[in-house]
């Protein structure tokens, strides 16, 4: 069956990227988003080289890069501030063809949405039913589709199965403008970590995680309390945070799914492979999914063949990355002093070149050919 009409459930990064890819291959696409507007309240976002290659395939890498900032370098530091690993973006770019770019999530969502016809974007539609020939929203309205794309996040209604709590809570925010006098880094403590990276307009994206349950204080107050006394520039960055701009979420991931496909329904993004954010690959993998799905559909007129190829190409890769993220997340959540000291020593002993090589299976991705 040839795919002419597509309904995408979810208007975040995954859904919009899929819509752009499918729209540009000549299909009639409708994006249904539960929220009334196509906006994103998230903070910053790291787009690694694989994500930038995916955006290249969508024709949007230049537009996204213009709204972002190239990270000069970064790495991991200890709780005391000592560098354990260093990454130079110039080396990253040379090896993988694109730099690490940091953008505001809302800017990426806006760029993707602007690449679609306004008529394709339907806000205020919560999908409550999936049928062989389309979907039904909460008002009983039916949307016909040859293909339904489930891109509605880790708590996906299209997928149906619940996610699992990882034991980790995260905070994300963006500072007011500061002098960008420090390279980005992640500081690892005992069951806690905090990171930061420069964004455009002299702002910094700050992200933190902890294993302990949240206190009853405000999100910003809890963030400052947990990381009071950490090395510079952490106190300076947190002092430049607007309390109303701090986002706090429990982290969930998914047990591995047996398939990303059911009939004419296909999952992508967090709906398919929600993972621990420690590798910064959630949005990156969603962009890869979107590009790959369009390539698979363009390669054959048979929907079942196209979706089988998509599942074959995406599920092993994304589940391997999710497993890697889960392992690293567990290590980052270690709390005992002997264990964290051993962890930090091991990280310090690994050469930077070896760290870069270890990232190659993830960052060397290129769009598949039809």
TrEMBL record:
Q: Which residues form a coiled coil?
A: none
Q: Name one Pfam family in it.
A: FAD_binding_3
One GO MF term: FAD binding
Alphabetic keyword roster: Monooxygenase, Oxidoreductase
Where's the FAD-binding domain? Answer: 5-325
InterPro entries this protein is in? FAD-bd, FAD-dep_Monooxygenase_BioMet, FAD/NAD-bd_sf
User: Translocase as a keyword?
Assistant: no
> What is the name of the protein in this document?
2-polyprenyl-6-methoxyphenol hydroxylase-like FAD-dependent oxidoreductase
Q: Which organism is it from?
A: Saccharothrix tamanrassetensis
Species lineage, top-down?
Bacteria, Bacillati, Actinomycetota, Actinomycetes, Pseudonocardiales
């Amino acid at each position: 069956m040839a795919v002419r009409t597509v309904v995408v459930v979810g208007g975040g990064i995954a859904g919009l990227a899929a819509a752009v890819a499918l729209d540009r291959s000549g299909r009639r696409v409708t994006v249904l988003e539960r929220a009334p507007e196509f906006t994103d309240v998230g903070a910053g976002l790291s787009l690694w080289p694989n994500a930038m290659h995916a955006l290249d395939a969508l024709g949007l890498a230049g537009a996204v890069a213009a709204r972002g900032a190239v990270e000069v370098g970064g790495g991991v530091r200890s709780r005391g501030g000592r560098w354990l690993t260093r990454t130079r973006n110039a080396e990253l770019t040379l090896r993988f063809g694109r730099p690490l770019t940091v953008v505001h999530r809302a800017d990426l969502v806006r760029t993707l949405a602007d690449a679609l016809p306004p008529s394709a974007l339907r806000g205020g539609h919560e999908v409550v039913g999936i049928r062989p020939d389309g979907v039904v929203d909460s008002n009983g309205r039916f949307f016909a589709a040859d293909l339904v794309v489930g891109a509605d996040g880790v708590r996906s209604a299209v997928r149906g199965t619940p996610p699992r709590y990882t034991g980790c809570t995260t905070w994300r925010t963006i500072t007011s403008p500061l002098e960008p006098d420090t390279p980005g880094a992640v500081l690892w403590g005992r069951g806690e970590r905090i990171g930061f990276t420069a964004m455009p307009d002299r702002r910094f994206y700050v992200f933190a995680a902890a294993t302990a349950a949240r206190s009853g204080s405000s999100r910003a107050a809890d963030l400052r309390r947990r990381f009071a006394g950490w090395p510079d520039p952490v106190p300076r960055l947190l002092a430049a945070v607007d309390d109303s701009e701090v986002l706090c979420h429990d982290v969930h991931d998914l047990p591995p799914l047996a398939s990303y496909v059911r009939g004419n329904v296909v999952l992508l993004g967090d709906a398919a492979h929600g993972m621990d954010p420690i590798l910064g690959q959630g949005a990156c993998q969603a962009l890869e999914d979107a590009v790959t799905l369009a390539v698979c559909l363009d390669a054959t007129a048979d929907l079942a063949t196209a979706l089988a190829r998509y599942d074959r190409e995406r599920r092993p890769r994304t589940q391997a990355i999710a497993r890697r993220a889960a392992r690293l997340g567990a290590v980052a959540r270690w709390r005992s002093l002997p264990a964290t000291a051993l962890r930090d020593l091991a990280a310090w002993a690994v050469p930077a070149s070896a760290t870069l090589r270890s990232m190659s299976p993830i960052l060397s991705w290129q769009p598949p050919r039809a």
